[in-house]
What does this fold into?
Amino acid sequence: MEEQNKDVIGSAMKLMRTLRRKENPAKHESRGAGKLLRILQENNGMSSRELADRMGIRPASLTEMLNRLEADGILTRQPDPADQRRNRIFIQEKGDALLKKMKAVRQMERERINHSLTLEEQEQFVALCEKLTKSLEDFRHQAGEQ
It folds into this structure.
């Protein structure tokens, strides 16, 4: 019975902490900047609200992140010509360079992780992660969460 009661969530969280603790030349990655920059690279000039929606975060949380990234010259906010009350977010050259560096680091991590598992183990791991994700999403949906 003890085998069935392994701490799956604890093991998954330990794996995620280990992945996030990596040495990374891009100090902003842990703050969600990688996702933000990837979205902006594909949709440069999005409004703050559109960006917050795409990232699945509160506008206030996005504002904190934008303030840090703008202070470092990674992006700029400019008034929307059609509606001066809104800002448009633009990735800068420094942001493009940072994103390129983040992608290179992430690719090296993928290769390192993939080499530690056989192809069959990789397939099993992905299938288990997808199964657990679906189970948690179904549970939250049934509980009325979104």
Summary: The longest helix spans residues 119-142. Strands lie at 46-47, 75-80, 83-91. Helices lie at 8-20, 33-42, 48-55, 59-71, 93-115, 119-142. Residues 8 and 132 are 10 Å apart (CA to CA).
